Amino acid sequence: MKEVRRTTLPVVEMAKSNEEFRQVLWTGDHTQLVLMAIPEGGEIGGEVHEGHDQLLYFVSGEGEATIGETKVPVKAGDVSIVPSGTFHNFRNTGNGMFKLYTTYCPPEHAPGNEHETKQEADAAE
């Protein structure tokens, strides 16, 4: 899917139907919207974004959020907030895909970036 230019999107439905590990949906000057799908037993991978706040909105499945020293279960309807400079990781602990959309402020990934799998995303970075 090419990056969209519309300003109103059915993002929950788009996130639920997304099957790619990472899909950059929209990039502005100060914010970015990204869809993610994490397979059973998979994870985003531990990371720290310097200079980028991140919010993650979970739409289906179950997982575990590690933010700093805190680990908590997360599920559809939950939001995780990751301040700039904070270690974080998100794991799929349920059955089926763990799906979410996330915002980066400012943008983190190249506009239109798509990675079908975590391995593909890791290789590109």
TrEMBL record:
Transmembrane regions listed in the UniProt entry: none
Pfam families for the chain: Cupin_2
Residues of the Cupin type-2 domain: 35-103
Cited InterPro entries: Cupin_2, Flavonoid_dioxygenase-like, RmlC-like_jellyroll, RmlC_Cupin_sf
Gene3D superfamilies tied to this protein: Jelly Rolls (2.60.120.10)
The protein's name: Cupin domain-containing protein
Organism, scientific name: Marinobacter flavimaris
